[in-house]
Write a structure and sequence with these properties.
Number of helices: 3
Distance between the termini: 82 Å
Helix content: 10-25%
CATH superfamily of the largest domain: Glycoside hydrolase, family 65, N-terminal domain
CATH architecture of the largest domain: Distorted Sandwich
Largest sheet: 8 strands, antiparallel
Oligomer: single chain
CATH class of the largest domain: Mainly Beta
CATH topology of the largest domain: Beta-galactosidase, Chain A, domain 5
Strand content: over 45%
Structural class: mainly beta
Number of domains: 3
Length: 340
């Protein structure tokens, strides 16, 4: 056989192998990533395919974990079917339960449609209930948004639904924090003035939490896996965590339940101003926003406030721009803005 015929056969054989291998690759299912990560500044948020989450804050040198062991943070759902309660959770909470009453979610998908959004889909076993979680971050912001859409794909109406999210904090690389509740914002938050400002968790517009807990992390996780938070926070310094809970009476076949929430961080300081959740209004309408001013100084102080819009919108105070606060006291300050 001459070299030309040999090379021709080899080339045809190589091309045939290429087609076969290509067909195998194209027919194989695409694997879902175990973890999808939004890397921004100052926040980095990671979502694992089984429901656990991680968040860290850039300190100028590296990202600092805000949850213990990185990902001790996630969701649980409870609902009644006849005389029994079904319970499902991310791996952190289901492992804590040790199979006593909470079963791990079944991962469905975990994807990033953009560099700033992660969509995680979880099934509550074979119940037909699906939890779709969307995490969104705007680069440069000190907060991120979570949206959960809970869908009942079964033929059964489930009752007494409870959705809980939270976990064990490791605030600013320090496993020691005070816990507080701000009723005007519906926010549970942590504070350690020795290391940073505040780390807070709150429901969005129309998604105010039904219950909360902040304090010893193990007490909070115990309450979460039991399916009911106690509306208690503990301001003593300790190994802290926090959770929020949302309730719904029933979810009919084909119905959906949408919950929004935010987690945020503030800069260090003994005077804190906390912004409310996002709000919506028609063009030209006036939207009222409730900010919270907190005085963590050791003495009473009077604050003269000013307000401005980074977008150039018309903004004004709904009341007095001056507040006097005792040490440890907070006040709600109303702001009105008109969108173009």
């Amino acid at each position: 056989m001459n070299r030309e015929n040999l090379f021709g056969r080899l080339n045809r054989y190589s091309f045939f192998l290429f087609l076969v291998l290509s067909a195998i690759v194209l027919s194989a299912p695409m694997a879902q990533a175990a973890t999808q990560t939004i890397s921004g500044n100052p926040l980095q948020i990671a979502c694992e395919d089984e429901g656990s989450m991680a968040a860290s804050v850039w300190d100028g040198v590296e990202y600092i974990d805000q949850y213990y062991s990185g990902d001790s943070w996630g969701s649980l759902i409870f609902f009644d079917n006849g005389g029994s309660t079904l319970a499902y959770a991310d791996s952190y909470h289901s492992d804590w339960s040790s199979g006593d009453n909470v079963v791990a979610f079944t991962p469905v998908s975990n994807s990033m449609p953009t560099a700033w959004q992660v969509n995680t889909v979880l099934d509550a076993g074979t119940s037909g209930v699906r939890v779709s979680q969307r995490v969104e971050y705007t680069n440069g912001a000190a907060y991120y948004k979570m949206t959960w859409t809970i869908t009942n794909g079964s033929g059964t109406t489930y009752t007494n639904l409870k959705f809980i999210h939270g976990g064990d904090a490791y605030f600013a690389d320090d496993d020691d924090a005070q816990s507080f509740w701000d009723d005007s914002l519906g926010m549970v938050y942590l504070r350690n003035p020795g290391v940073s400002g505040l780390m807070g968790f709150y429901g969005g517009t129309g998604s105010r939490a039904s219950a909360y807990n902040g304090g010893d992390y193990s007490d909070g996780v115990d309450l979460a896996v039991a399916g009911q938070l106690d509306n208690i926070v503990d301001s003593e310094y300790q190994d802290a965590g926090y959770h929020l809970q949302w309730d719904r009476a029933s979810l009919a076949p084909g119905a959906t339940w949408t919950i929004t929430a935010y987690e945020k961080w503030t800069e260090a300081g003994d005077v804190q101003v906390l912004a409310p959740a996002d709000a919506a209004g028609a063009p030209g309408s006036t939207v009222s926003l409730a900010f919270t001013v907190q005085n963590f100084q050791e003495t009473t102080d009077t604050f003269d406030l000013s307000v401005a819009s980074a977008l150039g919108w018309t903004v004004s105070f709904a009341g007095s721009p001056t507040v006097t606060l005792d040490s440890g006291e907070s006040a709600t300050v109303g702001i009105e803005t008109t969108s173009p």
